[in-house]
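Weekly puzzle thread! Below is a chain. First person to post its structure in C-alpha cell form gets bragging rights.
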Amino acid sequence: MEQPDKHSTLVFFTGTFPFGKSETVIENEFPYLLKAFRNIIIVSNNQTDPVTRPVPEHVKLKRYRYHTTKMEKLSNSAYLLRKEVRDEVDYIHNVLHKRLGKNVLFNLHGSYSNALHAKKFILQLMKQENIKPENLYLYSYWMYDVAIGMAMVKKELPQVKAVCRTHRWDLYYDTNPQHYLPFRNYIVNNLDKCFVISEHGTQYLKQMLPEANHQKLKTLRLGTINQLLPKFELESHVFTVVSCSTLSPQKRVDMIIRALARLDFKVHWIHFGDGALRKETRELAHRLLGDKTNIQFEFKGMVPNTEIHHYYENNVVDVFLNVSDSEGVPISIMEALSFAIPVVATNAGGTGEIIKHHKNGVLLPVETSDEEVAKALKMFASASSVEKTKWRKTAYESWNTDFNADKNYRQFIHDLKFL
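Winning reply:
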C-alpha cells in the first residue's frame, strides 16, 4: 500500500466506532484507512460510551448527534419545498408506487432535517479544521441520513470526494416499517460511489433506482482478518455447534433451539450474542433442552470478537449455524469460514454469496423449518473423518478467495483514492 496521504483529510462517519461495543466489523477495516490517510477525523453518533477500540493519537474523535430535535425539525420544515424534496415525492409516487401517507411523510421530514443538520456540521468542520474541498474525503459507513447530508455537500462542492457503504437495514426498504428509506436515489445520484457489501444488495438497488445511477453502485465485500494457519484434520469429542447473532426476531434463534430439540445424539451448542429477546430465548432453551441429557448449551452473551476468535482457535467447532430471515452479508459467517468451520445457513440477503451448497456448507431456504435445520446438522454429525476434512478445507478456501480482509480492503482503498 502507498504511503499515507498527508494532504487529504478523511472524515469517517460511524454509528458508534470507536466507542462502545458495536460495529466490531470496522476493526478489520480501520487499519487500512490508517495506512491510506495521515489525517483522519472519526465522527460518531455515540454520545456516552468510552473509547473501547485503540485509536492512534493523531486521529481526531468527534461525537456528533445525528438526529435533530422536534424544534430543529420544525425550523427545517420550510426547506421541504426544495427541489430535492419534490423529486423525492415524485420518486415515491412514480417508482415506489406508494401513497404519501402520514408515516411516510414523517419519515421523509425527519431524514431531511437530519441531513440538513449533517450538512451544516460538515461545512463547519471544514472551516474549523481548515480543510479545502479538494482535500476532503467524506466516508459514511452506512447509507443513512448523514449520507444524505454528505450528498448535499458534494452537490454544492463538487471537488469533495464522498462515498458510503450500505449493508442491510440501510439498504432494503422492507426493513423499515413503512417499506421506505428516504432519499436513496438522491444519495446515489450525488455521491461519487456507493459500495454495496453484496451482489444481492447491488441488484436490489438497481431495481429501485433509475438506470442512470447504476454506474454509481459497486459490489465490494467486507472481510475478516485471520492470520492463523487453519486446522483441517480435527475430531471433536462431542458434536459442537456455534451460533453468533443478536437475540432479535429476524435472527430466529428460537428455531435453532427447536431444531436442537429434535436431535438424538450428543450436542454442545454455544451462542455468542445478546439482545431484546434474551429472556424469552433463554426460557425457551431451558424448557425444550434443559431436560435433555444429550444436549448441553451455553449463552455467552455479548463478547469482544477477539474472545470468539479465541474460542475458535482453542476448540473444535463442527458447524456454525445461522437461520436468519434477513441479512446483509454476515461477518459472523466469514469469521467461521476463516477458521475452517463449515456453515449451515439460510439463504437470506447475501448469504448465498458466501455459502455454496454442499461445498463449504449447507444453504437452506429462508422459509426453512426446524426439521430441515436438524436434518442438516445430522448430516454433518454423521460425516466421516475424510468428509469433515474436505468440508473444512473448502470452508477456508472460500473465505480466503472472497472474504479475506487484506484483499477486499486494499481494493476499497484503491477505489477510494482513485475516484
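Puzzle host: Confirmed. Bonus trivia for everyone else. The mean pLDDT is 93.
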